[in-house]
Design goal:
With about 750 residues, the chain is an alpha/beta fold. Helix content is about 45%, strand content about 20%. Among the domains are: about 5-90; about 350-450, no CATH class; about 620-760, P-loop containing nucleotide triphosphate hydrolases (Rossmann fold), CATH 3.40.50. The radius of gyration is 32 Å and the shape is globular.
């Protein structure tokens, strides 16, 4: 029998068994629903008795029993629902690959079919293996012949006799590829030739050997992935999350995995990858969102404000200093000094009157011996303050305002205070005391809550005091900063804070200072932290994240060629990481092969960079980029409209990428009456089908069929420090790249070899 016919027969058999499993799953679902309904109805039989201790105990046991039964039924229901999702996914495409494997010492050659999830028709007969299973790694890592692969029990040896890849649509095998490579170029080419969408797709069928090493790494405490634009680093890392959830199932939940993305737009772009693989999404957030959650009362500098600010001279040098590990160390030394002096506090007030002065709180804070650390010192202070508030209750009960409140109590308020069991009072005096105590306790409750939440610590003043202490902690001259320059920057920050704002450069130091004072031990339940676009983080921010997630393993990925925020500082990032993580427990992976763009676009994009030779293009042919220099903006608009028509005819969606939001607004106003375009103004928007206009800082990590670079003129992109930005824009294109400029082209592109593009 021909391989195609045999494989189709086998596929038909598997699909029949999947359909049988779906029928059984439906029965299990109905059964689980009925059992859950029975448990919920069982609450009607629970009788709440409180007359005696025994009856209270009986009631508690009855409630507990119902809770346990409900929990069991909910777990069973969740399992059935999860299985239903898996079966639906398998029915669409049960598997995508086959390897014939002969284990060392065995005479049997076993065919292993690999899909998105495991499927068996009996406990010992797997018809499909999960792509994350140890044996499946052979498909991604090895060719034919003798291979070694990792298992939980150690290394295993085997011989691979066949590697086969399938394209399956609607229950029919469309194409079969036999290959001696890990993943054949033809299958990869077919995947890469497709159109872009508003959601990132899983790459599970085309994972490359170097990507698989990233996905399955479980040893490194730091996995650092430097990858060229379009090298699949983000896709690989998302598959890595899915692999870890599979590898450590039962010990790791998606809530213990955090991913920091460059912007919310990108979060939306990737949010379907894990559900496609049958896993729940991890915690996804931007660094800005994380900081906003931590600092709800401060207006933080936005991504747009950060990008469009163009600091220069002393201001830029100061911002750079605030991002260094030296500044981080200075903050820690400053915090240590607070064990002896200079803690800043607020007085505690009640009904407009100061009841515990600042001086008293400071005295309490420093009354503990020198062995106390900041966290212990703060806890001891809170305990002392709570006792003082407790002691305040008795004195305050005699106050006139309390008597007035008692006299003005409504019947409802009175009944609420007495509770469910009205009591008999021996005298009016006893009743008054009882009510007065409740009234005072309730009135002091917000004060006590504030003490528990450390609100007596004046963190704003503390941070300003730190800023003013920096010249004693850091050699400013080493950064070409004068004390006058520094004083000026401090006053700028002070004025911002008075308005409830905080600059980006001060955001992370502010959070760290508060954490150090509180003696924070970080979020210790988080096990894995992923940081995308690592090149836009400062050493201070990375040190802070390691401090904030002390038990987590870190995966960092990025492209130093796309450092549009930190720019030249990104180059030293790897050196900084060696200070934070044990080099022996760190692994560095470099991905130089780019898959996103055609060879022509890749060759053009990498020529923009000084070190672009580190990028290898995938051999996928396409048109050369087109560069057009127009005499006016009106002509640029016309050229844009013509290109949009051409892209539409080729069924290619287009992104018009501008430098700033203001530029995006100009493009939108010029085009909206003549073309169907959507402007992306904020990172909270979602990508939509069709043509979009987007500023460059929101396009990071995204890809589009066609890109039009709007106004790549000399007057727009003029500094060498914008080289990474220009590269980032160009490398978003998969199939078509059009560069438009008015009057003169930016020198960053004018220097590119003319053989790499067409002049329009």
């Amino acid at each position: 029998m021909e391989p195609y016919e045999a494989e189709q027969q086998r596929l038909d058999t598997v699909l029949e068994k999947i359909q049988d499993a779906k029928v059984q799953n439906d029965l299990d679902r109905k059964n689980a629903e009925q059992k859950q309904a029975d448990v919920e109805n069982g609450w009607n039989d629970v009788r709440f008795k409180s007359s005696t201790y025994g009856s209270l105990f009986e009631t508690a046991m009855s409630v507990r029993q119902q809770q346990q039964m409900l929990q069991e039924r909910e777990l069973a229901m969740n399992s059935v629902e999860h299985q239903a999702v898996v079966l639906d996914r398998l029915q669409a495409r049960p598997y995508f690959a086959r390897i014939d494997v002969q284990e060392a010492g065995s005479e049997t050659v076993e065919p292993i079919y690999i899909g998105l999830a495991s499927f068996s028709d009996s406990p010992d007969n797997f018809l499909v293996y999960d792509w994350r299973a140890p044996i499946s790694s052979i498909y991604y890592d090895a060719g034919l012949g003798n291979v070694t692969y990792e298992t939980p029990d150690g290394k295993q040896e085997a011989n691979v006799h066949l590697k086969r890849q399938f394209q399956i649509e609607d229950g029919t095998i469309v194409t079969i590829f036999d290959t001696d490579e890990a993943v054949g170029d033809q299958m990869l080419l077919n995947a890469l030739s497709g159109e872009s969408t508003t959601k990132m797709k899983s790459i599970v069928t085309t994972i490359q050997k170097e990507q698989n090493k990233i996905i399955r790494n479980t040893a490194a405490e730091l996995l650092f992935v430097q990858g060229a634009a379009g090298s699949g680093k983000t896709s690989a890392v998302l598959q890595r999350v899915a692999y870890l959830l599979y590898r450590y199932r039962g010990h790791l939940t998606s809530g213990q995995v955090v991913m920091f993305s460059p912007n919310q737009l990108f979060n939306d772009y990737i949010d379907q990858v894990l559900p496609e693989l049958g896993e729940q999404n991890m915690v996804q957030m931007t660094y800005y969102q994380y900081a906003s959650r931590r600092l709800p009362k401060l207006q933080l500098e936005t991504l747009q404000e950060r990008f469009e600010a163009q600091p220069a001279g002393a201001q830029k040098r100061i911002i750079d200093l605030k991002g260094t590990s030296v500044y981080f160390d200075a903050m820690q030394r400053y915090a240590d000094s607070l064990n002896k002096a200079d803690i800043k506090v607020r007085p505690i007030k009640f009904r407009g009157q100061e009841i515990i002065s600042k001086e008293k709180i400071v005295d309490i804070y420093y009354s503990f011996n020198e062995n106390y650390k900041l966290g212990n010192r703060l806890q001891g202070t809170k305990e002392r303050l709570m006792k003082m508030l407790q002691g305040r209750i008795g004195n305050e009960m005699q106050a006139d305002w309390v008597e007035a409140e008692i006299q003005n109590l409504t019947k409802e308020q009175y009944d609420t205070m007495l509770g469910d069991n009205p009591r008999e009072f021996k005298s009016d005096e006893e009743e008054t005391k009882y009510l007065a105590k409740i009234i005072v306790t309730n009135a002091l409750a917000p004060i006590a809550k504030g003490v528990n939440r450390n609100r007596f610590i004046n963190i704003n003043n503390q941070f300003i005091h730190f800023l003013r202490s920096v010249p004693k902690l850091v050699n400013l001259a080493a950064y070409d900063i004068t004390e006058a320059d520094w004083t000026k920057s401090v006053e700028y920050t002070v004025n911002k804070m008075k308005n409830g704002e905080l600059p980006m450069a001060d955001m992370t130091p502010f959070m760290l200072l508060f954490d150090l004072i509180k003696g924070s031990r970080g979020e210790r339940d988080i096990r894995f932290v992923f940081i995308d676009e690592i090149q836009d983080y400062t050493p201070f921010q990375l040190a802070f994240l390691k401090f904030s997630f002390p038990r987590a393993r870190f995966t960092m990925l990025g492209d130093l060629n796309q450092a549009i925020f930190t720019k030249e500082n990104a180059v030293s990032l790897q050196d900084e990481l060696s200070r934070l993580f044990d080099p022996e427990k760190s692994e560095y992976v470099q991905l130089t092969q780019t898959y996103r763009s055609t060879q022509q676009i890749t060759d053009y994009s990498k020529a923009i960079l000084i070190n672009g030779a580190q990028i290898d293009a995938f051999e996928r042919e396409g048109d050369k980029p087109v560069v057009k220099i127009l005499p006016s903006q009106d002509k640029m608009v016309e050229a844009t409209l013509m290109q949009l028509v051409a892209n539409d005819e080729a069924d290619e969606t287009t992104a018009i990428i501008t430098k700033t939001l203001a530029d995006a607004e100009v493009a939108y106003e010029a085009l909206r009456e003549r073309a169907d375009v959507t402007i992306i103004r904020t990172e909270n928007q979602r990508l939509v089908p069709g043509t979009i206009i987007v500023p460059a800082y929101l396009a990071k990590g995204l890809e589009f069929d066609a890109v039009i670079m709007w106004d790549a003129s000399e007057g727009v992109y003029h500094g060498d420090d914008e080289r990474q930005l220009v590269y980032t824009i160009a490398s978003r294109a998969m199939h078509q790249l059009t560069v438009l400029a008015v009057t003169s082209l930016t020198p960053l592109l004018a220097e590119v070899d003319e053989r790499l593009y067409e002049k329009g």
